[in-house]
């Protein structure tokens, strides 16, 4: 914690996730599991706060001892050892004494003191090379969680009242995608996190909230105090803490200008997306939850290009039943009124994990994720397929399969779908008999063996977030290598270009549904490479439409060819720059200055 040392102004830098300016007061939070109130206690309240803390430690000690005494004789030996370990952690001064010092010296409430100390220890464990020892971090978190639950007396509400939310900027060390999805129920002014890359799922959900946000700030949470005044410049990735009046006024003016521009853009909502030379382009929306469909409609999306269905499975103790899933899919399809709705089958694993699931794999991004997980868990997969097929009667559902790499994965998936159809036929349950099945191209191996993909599947969708991650060997969640994450790397562009060409040649639809689809620096290049379907966050859709409306496709195609032939990075960069900034007419579109 940074104590209330000074009101000095300072600036921090990170990677902008969503543009715009947010001005508000800092609200420090931990991961939702450790979400606690942060408040300063009065001088005469310190003794009482220490008592509250000690009582919780004592209660957990007696709980653990009680559990230990009652371990059944038939229980595995590890059970006793596990409880011993937790008792040891509890007795360690790092957990039972240091938080007391924080309460005394910094006057933080007991919950806050405990969580801060736990996070400090957890960060040290993250540095440990040995995977077994590193895993012990989970034990420390479990003990801390127990102590938090045992804390007597009512702490203030963990989240502020909705009336204050629009004035608050959430400051966190790290948030999981599951934490972030909970924030969809709130209306915060902005977000900053210490960890994370711009295409991590946490950032993706933050972007879908359409509020200024920055990730990869490194030390923001430690340097900022609760309630300090903050300005986020989401486009530049800059956070200003305790701005002076002049800076504040300047950013308020910029915020008003951006808002005015956003309102102007709305006039493009019902305009058909076509290039200057008349090529129509489909601009669809990415959603995480059924309620996001409202934003997609507001932005004038012509379909849902990616519904990340796994978000229905997070933040809950048990999996959603078939009927619950069916209702969720049907709700989206109905709301889209006949427009295509592409629902991706479960992409669980890596950073999106089910509550209470097994400990992380050694390298989760390369582990049992997405279709690999579904094929290994046929019951979960079949339940989802049944729900999807049943919902397909209510509109135009397309099934999208994530993380395909092998021909046998395609075969197995198609066989699972055929089996589900046969089961529904047997039970006389209707479904869309011509439902299309597509595959995500997000592993280089898929982009390099497209023949089988276009032969077996009805459409392709390029997941650039993972395609870039796996091509460049850059963990998309790791801000330490975020500077190497380059969507315009020649190898990435080569894979994208050949996927688009192969699909177009085979007469199969192809889209880009990764973050690159909403990146204005890539719009014209993708159009020039032959892409006609883009799927992105609703909040990005109108700016991309403005870019499409201002593009001369013939010159974009010629320029894209030149770019793909150019190997000199500087020359290539210049050509890309020229392509992006050609004043083809975008400046005239809707009177909005680009
Ligand atoms: C992608 O990888 O580009 C993609 C769209 O899927 P996700 O971001 O959910 O992994
Ligand atoms: Mg992906």
Task: Explain how this protein is built.
With 594 residues, this protein is of the alpha/beta class. It has 3 domains: 10-32 and 159-260, Glucose Oxidase, domain 1 (3-Layer(bba) Sandwich), CATH 3.50.30.10; 43-150, PtsI, HPr-binding domain (Enzyme I, Chain A, domain 2, Orthogonal Bundle); 279-547, Alpha-Beta Barrel (TIM Barrel). The chain contains 24 helices and 16 strands. The protein has an 8-stranded mixed beta sheet. Strands 15-14-13-12-11-10-9-16 form an 8-stranded parallel beta sheet. The radius of gyration is 26 Å and the shape is globular. It starts with 9 loop residues before the first strand and ends in a 13-residue tail after the last helix. Mean pLDDT is 89; it is low at 1-6, 154-158 and 590-594. The structure holds phosphoenolpyruvate and magnesium ion. Phosphoenolpyruvate is lined by residues 204, 306, 308, 347, 442, 463-466, 513-514.
Helix content: 40-55%
CATH T-level fold name of the largest domain: TIM Barrel
**CATH H-level superfamily title of the largest domain:** Phosphoenolpyruvate-binding domains
- Spell out which ligands are present: phosphoenolpyruvate, magnesium ion
* Total domain units: 3
Q: Give the overall shape.
A: globular
Q: Mind telling me the CATH class of the largest domain?
A: Alpha Beta
Q: How many angstroms separate the termini?
A: 42 Å
Structural class: alpha/beta
Q: Compute the number of strand runs.
A: 16
**Overall mean pLDDT:** 89
CATH A-level architecture of the largest domain? Alpha-Beta Barrel
**Which regions are unreliable across 5 or more consecutive residues at pLDDT < 50?**
1-6, 154-158, 590-594
**How do the strands line up in the largest sheet?**
1-8-7-3-4-5-6-2
